Structure formats: structure tokens, C-alpha cells
């Protein structure tokens, strides 16, 4: 294996982090731009939802394929292809003059991100070979990843206020071009796995994940009993079942299903799901709360998330050092517990609460996010041979992305149901609009009529948000309780020991 100087390793880490940051940033950077996009492109609720979710749909559906393509065709060329697609998709979004073009651009961004993310962690694992330095490097990598998620609203708000909504996409173009230049000069050529292709597995997982994400996205809008939602759910179930059967029989599976059934890596995957479930869901609805209930501008709403961003960056690096010394169990349990505590604490603040009163909650949530990203990445990627690291990275990223989409969908459904129920009690009808119509109006900032109506809707929205936060906190508590039970490695055990255990088991 090629030897790398410390300076070369740092350059590789910076290069990988720049591309990953861009991909993670675009999960939530568009949230603060939605009102401006809706006004400019005359988009309604369903259209704005697709602006957010087209990215997640393409990203989640193609992540496994992106990881496998990197393992088989070379991680550097696939990573570079992903950066190119992402920058091109960003330019298409910025130039979009209609909603369909914007949604198409977001989908292209998602495809690019699906090629970037798994290759990024796989290259990092190849370059940083010693357990301790690898854990520290993954800590930095995870900090950038988590900070990209948390920093989305912070960056998006000022850009929208000063330059318009297209600026949240233009910013990716120069960053992407710089990343391409760095990648061509700095990234190493990583050995390929040489495994045979698995076209049936790729087809079934793309269909299954695509249909699953579509059902989760459309369920809260159309209703869970809608024919399209039920059809997508049924297609997802059948396709994912077919995928599992194919992967159990094929000679060279694109995904090692043992990662999801092993005590350590399976629990880590559930932790990734639960983390994204709570943080993504709150990230979307907290932005709405700040702008429509507290009256913040997009810039103010974005800066309000800064405490979470800083806490994520700091704790991710610290988590890497902790995992290197003591293993993933402690940081992972603590991180999940902090996320659950933060969500539960936020539910204690009513409509009249000022930002200064609950800002500390964002610090707790950011710290929890930072403490979970690093141990999850180390546990999962350390459980496979180096030539399959792309597949392992894609698996955890896929689980995390589906968790985020599910969090937005389920928390949104809980919020809307509780909001509508509260409105029926306080405001049976207003201006010919039903309580359900008013519930949908608040989630996009639609005109709410007289001050009395606006006050009632704001109060009901906060009630619904509290219920959604408590539901997410419950899931995080369950997963946090499972970590000490199932992740019981000795303190001295490193990632390579886990890999050896899986190899012996095979």
C-alpha cells in the first residue's frame, strides 16, 4: 500500500471534506429559500415539497449504487464524476425559470451526492491506515458532515436575503470546481474490488428505495390511504424483498446484509436512522417555527441555527478521539441521549417563548449530532475489508438519508394531525377554509387571514410541533437504550477486530 506523508494526508482530508460538506449542506440549505422560491415560481405546497425531496429521492435511491460503482470502477473517478454532476445540477437549479426545471436540477444534485458520499469515506479509510489516526480523521470528516447539515439554514438565510434564492445553488459551483481541481491533484488511486456486477440487485434497490422515499414524501400530503401512496408503498415492499432475496443468492452481492444484522453494525445503522429522523425533521419544522411563529427573517432564522452548527463541529472531533481510545459505545449512547433530551426539552417552550430562552436546546442537539456521526461511521466502515469500504459507507449513508426523509414525513404527519385537531377546537372554520386547509397553510407560510386566525394557527402549530418532537424523542430513547446492550465490544477492540469477526463468521 502506498505510504502517505502527514501533509498529503491532510490535503486528502481537506479535499474529501470540501465535497462532502457541499453534499450535506444541500440537504437543508434550501429550507430557508422555500418562501422566496414559492413566490417567484408560483409554486404551491406540493411543488415546494418536491424542491426539498427530489434531492433526497435521488440521493437515497442511488447511494448503494454509488458505493458499488466506486468499489468496482475506482473511487477517484466516481468521486470526480459525482462532483461534476453536483456542480452541474447546482447551476441548473440556479438558472431554473420554472418549477419542473428546478426539481430536475435538484435530482441531478442528488445523483452527484450519491456518488460523492460513499467514495469520500472509502478513500479516507484507505489513506488513514492506523486505527487511532483513522478514528481522528473520521471525527473531522463526520464533523464536516454534521456541520454541513446544521449549517444549511445558517448559510441559506443570508444568501436569500441579500442575493435571492438562486444564490443557495450558485455557491456550489465555485466550491465544486475547486474540489475538482483538488481531487485531480491530491486524491490517490484506490485499488478496485474486482467483484462482478450485480445488475438485478442495483435495479431492485433503486426501485425499492425510490418508491419508499416517494411514499414517505407523499403520505403526509395526499394522505396515507391515497392510491398512489399505497401503490408506492407496495412497490417498495416488493422491490426491497426482491433485493434481499437476490443479495442472499448472488455470488457477488452489492450489499453485505450482515452489516444490518450484526450486533454492532446493525445497531449503529439504527442509530444513524434515528439521528437523522429527529434532526432532519426538527431542522425543517424549526425553520418554519422561527419564520412564521416568531417572525424571523430568513437570515435571522439561519443564524439562529449557529449554536447547533458549532456544537456539532466541536463534538465530532472530540468523538473521534473518544472512539479511538474507548470504542463507539459511550459516545453513541451519549449522543442519542442528548438528541432525545433536546427534542423533549424543546417541547416545553410555548408560542410566547423567545429564542434566547431555548437557544441552549440547539447546543444540546448539535452536540448529540456530533457524538453520533463519528462512532456510526467508524463502526460500520471498520467492519468490512478495505475494498468494500465504499459499500459500507453507502449503506450507512442510505440508512441515514431514509431516516431523514422518514423523520420529515412522520414528524410532519404528527404535527399536521395535532395541529388540525387543535384548530378544530379553537377555530372550526375561517373564511371558508377548513382546519385542515389552515394546517397546510402554516407549513408554507400561506396567508392566514385575520390576526385572530393567525394567532390560533401559530398556537396550534406549536402544539403540533411539540407532539412531533416527543414522538422523535421516544424513538431516540429506544435506540439509545439498545446501544449499551448490543454494542459490547471490549475497550481495546478496534475496527479491524470487528472486520476480523465478520470475516471469520463468513
CATH architecture of the largest domain: Up-down Bundle
CATH overall fold name of the largest domain: Growth Hormone, Chain: A
What class would the helix/strand composition place it in?
A: mainly alpha
Number of strands: 0
Choose one word for the global shape. globular
Radius of gyration: 22 Å
Domain count: the total is: 2
Distance between the termini: 25 Å
Order of helices and strands: HHHHHHHHHHHHHHHHHHHH
The amount of helix comes to over 70%
Percent of residues in beta strands:
under 5%
Main sheet: strands, sense, barrel? none
- In the CATH hierarchy, what is the class of the largest domain? Mainly Alpha
Give the mean pLDDT: 79
Q: How many distinct helices?
A: 20
Tell me the name of the CATH homologous superfamily of the largest domain: MFS general substrate transporter like domains
Low-confidence stretches: 430-436, 443-448, 490-506
The quaternary organization reads as single chain
Structural summary, described in words:
With 506 residues, the chain is an all-alpha fold. It has two domains: 6-197 and 252-505, Up-down Bundle (Growth Hormone, Chain: A); 198-251. The protein contains 20 helices and no strands. It has helices at residues 6-28, 34-41, 45-73, 75-95, 99-127, 131-163, 167-170, 172-186, 199-222, 227-249, 258-261, 263-293, 298-303, 306-326, 329-346, 355-381, 389-426, 435-442, 451-486, 495-505. The protein is globular. The model is unreliable at 430-436, 443-448 and 490-506 (pLDDT under 50).
Key traits:
81% helix; 506 residues; mainly alpha; Growth Hormone, Chain: A; disordered C terminus
